[in-house]
Structures are given as structure tokens and as C-alpha cells.
Design a protein that fits this description.
Blueprint (H helix, E strand, L loop, with lengths): L9 H12 L5 H8 L3 H19 L4 H39 L3
Length: about 100
Amino acid sequence: MKKTRKYPPAEEKALVLKKYLVEKLPISDLCDEYGLQPSQIYRWQKQLFENAPAVFRRTNKRAEDAKDRKIVALEEKLVKKNEVVAELMEEHVQLKKEIGEL
């Protein structure tokens, strides 16, 4: 009989690791309770500690907001420029037709 893989959600992974690291429950008990292999819990622990610095990084919301506003302004400017270029090209084609070059 082939076992199906279990993909627990992040909340369950965090709960298992909390029980292991904080509450000091034995790995064997957690494996029995959640149907896991010890190597899986150790892998999650490794991922937790490798990604922990991201939790403590400071983000500068003000700088991000300013960057977002600048992007919006530049996109609006680009749309206006494209409209002007399209209008000029239309006038150019119309003048060429009047002159007889097209």
C-alpha cells in the first residue's frame, strides 16, 4: 500500500515546532500525534532558523510608499506621453495624405 504525502499548512508546522522547542515535547510523541517522520520536524526546524532573520528585519514603510507613489506618477506620465505621440503621428499621417506622399 502506497502512502500519500502529507503537506501540513504553515500553522500546523509552527504548532509542531512550538511544542517541540518551547513545550519540550519529545519528537516521538509529536511524530505519533501528527503522523510525521522525525526528519521532517528537523527539516522544519532548520527552515525556521534559516528564515528567522527575515522576521526581525526592519522595513522602511515610508520609503516603500514614496517608491509606490513615484511609480504611479511615472506610469501616468508615460500614458500621457503615449497619447501625445499617437496624436502627433496621426497628424503627421494626415498631413502626408494631404501633400500626396501617402
